Amino acid sequence: MVICAFKIEIMSFKKSVLLFSLLIVALCCNNTSTKNSVSSTAADNSFPAITEASAKLPLELIKLPKGFSISVFAEVEDARSMVLTPNGTLFVGNRGEDKVYAVKDTDGDFKADKKWVIASGLNMPNGVAFRDGDLYVAEVNQIHKFTGIESKLAAPGKSQIVYDKFPTEKHHGWKYIAFGPDGKLYVPVGAPCNICESKDPVFASITRMNADGSGLEVYANGVRNTVGFTWHPETKNIWFTDNGRDMMGDDTPPCELNIATKAGQHFGYPYCHGGTIKDPEFGNKRFCSEFVQPAQNLGAHVAPLGLKFYTASMFPAEYKNQIILAEHGSWNRSKKSGYKLSLVKVDKSNSASSYTTFASGWLDEATQKVWGRPVDVLLLPDGSMLVSDDYAGVIYRISYKG
């Protein structure tokens, strides 16, 4: 009997310890959940746009022309393409993640303080565009529209599918989108490979459509993979970057900056690269002279992405109507290239006349270590420039004081 009583007491003690442990765990979990909800989400469902995380970035390593400075405007994970509304809301897409964000500087100090998740669960929502109060988001195979988005940042609701017939291939499937001066939405469709001929003419092209998704047409052909384009402020011609093919060595072929002056032009892929270099697999099928020559050959494997003409007045006069271009950086070169912002000057004949570095320092040339990769650029109303970085997970602001 004594032994049985002893066993019962031991079992009761173990049950008490177990119940106490479960109670502690429950309390801890509840406290953690409450703490996170209070610290990360406000009443309007926004999150802080800047935390202590970005303070560790070595911005002092960025080399800029004299008089320029760089700071962190916002923290956005995998920050890719950007579009700014007239009311000052910045929308940001991403490629490696599944979300689209909205960011706002509500107090005018040139640092964003609020951030919202507009959509999640999307398939490489790289591209964002804005028109007449509506946000357009590009997935690999379809275009979404969020109507009246700025009045619904806290609860955007379900999107409308504008177009859903783009290819589903993910190789070069992520898209940069923008509305042109003609009011049409321009949407590129990258080649579904490193180098190949495709029977479907929509591949390796830039398409355009009406804002409601109707009237799709191929605007430019022979474009391997553009993830950035813009329009000249005077001629209204579209200028676009194009990523050169891989597996032809460290220094061949160059990536390209191109100009399309009308619909139907062909820019060489997969037959000709850089205007003069025959492709080893397909080059004998067409002559390089058949195609539109690049406006400017860029570095090999630098992966040029977003670009903008500088049309504001904060920067010195020499930058007026010149191109700032983001070079995302190489992935398969023995010595890395890119990881910088370049300046392409355009002469009075609207042709590229020079190609130089504007900002560098995200790549340590000596150690070959990288801490940032520029993706897209755009201008703020005060004339400063925003630059997204999907590697560091931030958006920078570059300003000039002289």
List the helices and strands and how they pair.
Blueprint: H1 2-40, E1 47-48, E2 68-75, E3 82-84, E4 89-92, E5 100-104, E6 114-119, E7 127-131, E8 134-138, E9 143-146, E10 160-163, E11 178-179, E12 185-189, E13 205-209, E14 217-221, E15 229-231, E16 238-242, E17 256-260, E18 265-266, E19 272-273, E20 277-278, E21 296-297, E22 304-309, E23 323-327, E24 340-346, E25 352-359, E26 363-364, E27 369-370, E28 374-379, E29 385-389, E30 394-400
Parallel strand pairs: 14-18
Antiparallel strand pairs: 1-6, 2-30, 3-4, 4-5, 5-6, 7-8, 8-9, 9-10, 11-12, 12-13, 13-14, 15-16, 16-17, 17-21, 19-20, 22-23, 23-24, 24-25, 26-27, 28-29, 29-30
Describe the overall structure.
- This protein has about 400 residues and is mainly beta.
- It has two domains: about 1-40; about 45-400, TolB, C-terminal domain (Neuraminidase).
- The protein has one helix at about 1-40, and strands at about 45-50, 70-75, 80-85, 90, 100-105, 115-120, 125-130, 135-140, 145, 160-165, 180, 185-190, 205-210, 215-220, 230, 240, 255-260, 265, 270-275, 275-280, 295, 305-310, 325, 340-345, 350-360, 365, 370, 375-380, 385-390, 395-400.
- It has a five-stranded antiparallel beta sheet, with no helix packed on it.
- A hairpin with a 6-residue loop joins β15 (about 230) and β16 (about 240).
- The model is unreliable at about 1-40 (pLDDT under 50).
